[in-house]
Amino acid sequence: xxxxxxxxxxxxxxxxxxxxxxxxxxxxxxxxxxxxxxxxxxxxxxxxxxxxxxxxxxxxxxxxxxxxxxxxxxxxxxxxxxxxxxxxxxxxxxxxxxxxxxxxxxxxxxxxxxxxxxxxxxxxxxxxxxxxxxxxxxxx
Length: 140
Known about the structure:
Blueprint: E1 3-7, E2 12-18, E3 24-30, E4 35-38, E5 51-55, E6 60-67, E7 73-80, E8 85-87, E9 101-105, E10 110-118, E11 121-129, E12 134-137
Antiparallel strand pairs: 1-2, 2-3, 3-4, 5-6, 6-7, 7-8, 9-10, 10-11, 11-12
């Protein structure tokens, strides 16, 4: 399972990773006519089950987590700048996970992450990303 999000600045759909056997770590862009492989200087490692969303307040696509080829869940945060991937140094973040969901909350200018699968099984926690850190929330 790959991650995919629309980049509003370039009007392209960005696809990263996925795989049907071993995970891959390539970046592709769809410009409404053709797919083209991107060759960024930096990139997240191969993974599947990660989540991506456009973060309008930052003008970047944000990628979180997933699983590597050894089926180890990850807890890293990356931003696609339009030409390169940048790993974001995060102090507090969700636990390692894969197969979670993330979406942009336009009214609040934050990404919201929910659930997924961690080392102990299914997760039902909620986190928000403000462009600097992840903050856990405990909704009723």
